[in-house]
Amino acid sequence: MLGKKKTDVVVVGAGPVGLFSALLLAEAGLKVEIYDKDWRGSIHSYALTLHSGSLRLLNQVGLSSELIKRGRRIGRLAFYEKGERMAEIDLTKLDELFPYALVLPQCHLENLIEDKLKEKKIRVHWNHRVQDLDLQNKDRVIAKIERLEKVSLGYPIAHQEQLVNKTLEVEAKYILGADGCLSRMRRVAGIEFPDVLEKMILCAFEFQMEEPGKEEARITLAPGEANVFWPMADGRCRMGFQVPKEPADWPDVGTLNRFIQERTPWCREAPEEVYWSTIVHFDRRLAERFGEGRVWLAGDAAHVTSPAGSQSMNVGLREARDLTQTMADALADGDSETGFQKYNSKRVAEWRQLLGLDEGLVTAGGNDDWIGKIGPGFVPCIPASGPDLETYLAQLGLR
Ligand SMILES: Cc1cc2nc3c(=O)[nH]c(=O)nc-3n(C[C@H](O)[C@H](O)[C@H](O)COP(=O)(O)OP(=O)(O)OC[C@H]3O[C@@H](n4cnc5c(N)ncnc54)[C@H](O)[C@@H]3O)c2cc1C
What's the per-residue H, E or C state across 269-286? Predict the structure, then answer.
């Protein structure tokens, strides 16, 4: 075994939440090491949309103008039932610095944060898997890390495997687990991650399409079914269609045109080509707690939900802000537990609301039947959380 480092915080996972956490810890003057088991960040734009609240957070670390330059502003979210427009939210009606949602591929966000980290002389340790934690000592934790190497095996079928070429131990005050929905840190800490709602399966497509409405995203809702349309840069767009079970065949341009005819007749186009298509399963899960002792979670490691409003990643960025502040305060304060307990209870409460697990969303009166019928179904579709989400829901007559 080689190497033994000491640091304040080990961040596990260099997705958007882990990268942002590492940057905030560095800004707070803490020592941080960040590890990711993969060879690089994401190359596709999974989560597409940055909320106004995320832009405000990213503004505090000097990233908002670069992001806005590369992204596309969306000022309105319209709701349809098949071809009929039923309601809309004006996303610009927010008394804030960035009154819109910004469509921007997740990989651009990750690259920009990684560049900022490099400016601070912090390098992501790609190809390093945090395999286990030694939690014996109450004052510190030891992360057991494997450095991975890819080897090509040419016979009988060419494929690549990962070999462990080095193991190392890093001693830290805290572990920040931002290691995604399959989180190993969550499992090592013994935290349950139960299903709280039915799994959602989505067929998603990216293709070229003339804008149906300027700076407008659209959600077509029916009972048990959400179909989403988000315009992207360069005349491209993404459409996602919720399906009851995994289709037998890979979704292609024929599938896309069938979905458009049956579910989103407001769309008058018949695309001839798709650039990208996929089938994604979104479990809807919530961690029973967001951490314990020296191991704390943020982002998809603690929650997964419908992708329609990109809430998992965006709320994850807020969690990164809260958790890194809590860690900085605890270290300055002699490892007080109080801040972590507050973090846990606030996070669980917010996610119970976002997932609609508690009673709470009521019509404020005066809205039509359709809005009342969809009710809580709007929440995961709206690109916002916290007070911004309340402001937007109020436009639908919901509170
Ligand atoms: C196919 C797909 C499509 C999606 N589409 C959408 C969408 O349309 N809209 C939307 O809002 N969201 C979408 N998402 C979800 C979105 O990508 C996540 O919400 C977001 O990436 C969460 O960020 P995160 O940093 O919490 O976790 P992640 O981005 O999952 O990052 C976790 C990181 O941890 C690393 N890691 C895991 N285990 C270890 C370990 N033991 N040691 C070291 N590193 C480790 C992983 O390699 C990964 O880089 C999609 C996700 C997928 C996979």
Answer: CCCCCCCEEEEEEEEEEE
